[in-house]
């Protein structure tokens, strides 16, 4: 493989067949000229189960990062329903290892669950009127009515299990109504729930303290205060009884109230208009070509169905 990339000529037919991709990459270049930062895009078709963040994302992210010069500031545009927390942290490690000039998350619409955790690992989250983060309470698989696998909040299960324990302690008996609920549940599953919740909190606290809470308005903060704020943010995002559902909308105002560093762009802001146009291009791609995930920059374009 040559050390210097070779730019191959595009025939008219080839360029026409790939015109959508070139239009998106031109939009990426336009955003880069506006911000002075490199832009990486990770967009998924959030309507599909296969869009979940997973270890399959690691290699394409490696391709996105490979052409970048260490030390240059980077924006990561992310649109994802979340997924595997460990895969999310692996990608964060990769981005942080490659960068020393700053990492900013841009959320055009939807960065939930593990994708919210990725946003927390940035220096700042760029949001607009359509942007939303979500709770980070871990979801665990269990059997639903009819025996099918469903995903439920680990904390909700722990809370209900604690309610049953308190009722038994108070009455001395276990209601028969709880028998179907407790059937098949073992100590290992309870431990999994606790560990999963702790894992989400640990992820959030670790990366908030290392980056977002060290810059800007938080710079003068002493380490114990930074630890306390990071723990407060993590606890707030895991609070099932506050958000009630895992898909609850946490918009830019709510995100700021939590203590997360947000750069809110109004709809008429030139950068937001460019970001929104690019995001709409990916939405059209998902609807018309059956693409599930795409990883794109000014020089890389990897789409998977």
CATH architecture of the largest domain: Alpha-Beta Complex
Q: What is the total domain count?
A: 2
Strand count, sense and closure of the main sheet?
Answer: 7 strands, mixed
Q: Spell the H/E element sequence.
A: HHEHEHEHEEEHHHHHHEHEE
Major sheet: order of its strands? 7-4-3-2-1-8-9
- Report the β-strand fraction as a percent range: 5-15%
* Share of residues in helices: 40-55%
Class derived from helix and strand content: alpha/beta
CATH topology of the largest domain: 2-enoyl-CoA Hydratase, Chain A, domain 1
Task: Give the terminus-to-terminus CA distance.
Answer: 28 Å
Number of strands: 9
Number of helices: 12
CATH domain class of the largest domain: Alpha Beta
Structural features, described:
The chain is α/β, with parallel strands linked by helices. The protein folds into 2 domains: 179 residues, 2-enoyl-CoA Hydratase, Chain A, domain 1; 107 residues, no CATH class. The protein has 12 helices and 9 strands. The strands form 2 sheets. A 7-stranded mixed beta sheet has the order 7-4-3-2-1-8-9, with helices on both faces. It has a two-stranded antiparallel ribbon with strand order 5-6. The relative contact order is 0.17.
């Amino acid at each position: 493989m040559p050390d210097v990339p070779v730019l191959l000529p595009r025939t008219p037919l080839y360029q026409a067949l790939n015109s959508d991709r070139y239009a998106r990459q031109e939009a990426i270049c336009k955003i880069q000229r506006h911000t002075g930062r490199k832009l990486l895009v990770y967009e998924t078709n959030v309507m599909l189960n296969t869009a979940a963040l997973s270890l399959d994302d690691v290699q394409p992210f490696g391709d996105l990062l490979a052409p970048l010069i260490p030390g240059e500031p980077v924006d990561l545009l992310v649109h994802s329903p979340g997924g595997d927390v460990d895969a999310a942290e692996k990608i964060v490690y990769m981005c942080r290892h490659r960068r020393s000039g700053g990492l900013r998350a841009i959320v055009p619409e939807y960065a939930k669950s593990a994708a919210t955790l990725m946003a927390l690992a940035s220096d700042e989250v760029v949001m607009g009127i359509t942007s939303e983060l979500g709770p980070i309470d871990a979801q665990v698989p269990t059997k639903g009515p009819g025996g099918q696998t469903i995903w439920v909040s680990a904390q909700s299960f722990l809370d209900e299990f604690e309610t049953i324990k308190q009722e038994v302690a108070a009455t001395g008996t276990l209601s028969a109504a709880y028998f179907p609920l407790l059937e098949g549940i073992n100590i290992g599953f309870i431990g999994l729930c606790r560990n999963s919740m702790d894992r989400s909190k640990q992820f959030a606290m670790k990366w908030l303290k290392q980056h977002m809470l060290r810059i800007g308005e938080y710079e003068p903060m002493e380490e114990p205060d930074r630890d306390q704020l990071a723990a407060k943010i993590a606890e707030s995002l895991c609070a099932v009884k506050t958000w009630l559902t895992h898909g609850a909308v946490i918009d830019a105002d709510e995100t700021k109230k939590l203590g997360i560093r947000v750069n809110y762009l109004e709809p008429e802001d030139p950068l937001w208009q460019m970001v929104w146009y690019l995001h709409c291009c990916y939405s059209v791609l998902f609807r018309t070509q059956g693409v599930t995930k795409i990883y794109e920059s000014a020089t890389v374009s990897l789409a998977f169905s």
